[in-house]
Model the fold of this input.
Amino acid sequence: MDSTQVEEAFPAPLEDFRRQVNEKLRSSVDAVEPPRLREAMAYSLLADGKRIRPTLCLLTYEMFGHDVSIALPTACGLEMLHTASLIHDDLPAMDDDDFRRGSPSNHRVFGEGMALLAGDALLAYALEFILRNSGSLHPERQLGVMAKLIEVVGPSGLSGGQALDLDCQGRDEVDPWTVEEMHIKKTGALIEASVVTGAILGGASQDEIARLTTYARNLGLAYQIVDDILDETSSFQEVGKEVGQDRAAGKWTYPRLVGVEKARERVRTLITRAVEELDAFGERASMLRWAAGVVSGRAAA
Done:
């Protein structure tokens, strides 16, 4: 989906969130030194993107809070973590992708060493940026956000998911539960964190956080399965990177495991379960329902 399609698809309030995030991100790396590292970080961080994760954070916060500027540093930190994971995923030792969002991958422009450092720097800088720009937050809420984001980077999140991905490559057979665990960690953990940190910042109750966690976990798994479907059925122009590479590289995905149609059925089931968790929030959760509908619609395209 290119930037024009994104702008047409996003309701006006979400476009405003996207604008605020982009503005904050543009100024976030101005003071980073040395210059070449700053250039590598900015190249990927400021590339045109949908900003799904920061938007989910701000949407969830808005269900409980009023001034979204309070959640904006965390929203930007989430995008930094996401960008770091993309830089690392594209490296030849990982997914070996030459393009990202329609442009050459970071390592194709800056070299593998600098790309690795840019990803590492963004992982650390995300947490530093949040802490330095969230001074008015209640310490307990800040600690909850930090704990969730640190968890995302570790073995129960991005690192663990990528490790499973590498371990499964080349196997003759992989069970569906392993594929789902990989997706939940590699993609779902960051989507879950986006929703959960927004709830924490807004002062949601433990029961509300539990419901939103289940919503986001189902949404995140559905999102990754949709990405895998698009890798089988879409084109470079539509997704901004080479397609068909997962199957060519021997990667295990849901469509490879059960076929495209059954993968679409799984997406529909996951989206239904996600939306059911929002019933307790009534109209406050209307935009989170809309987000789930967008993911479901991409699978059917």
Notes: Residues 1-8 have pLDDT under 50 and may be disordered.
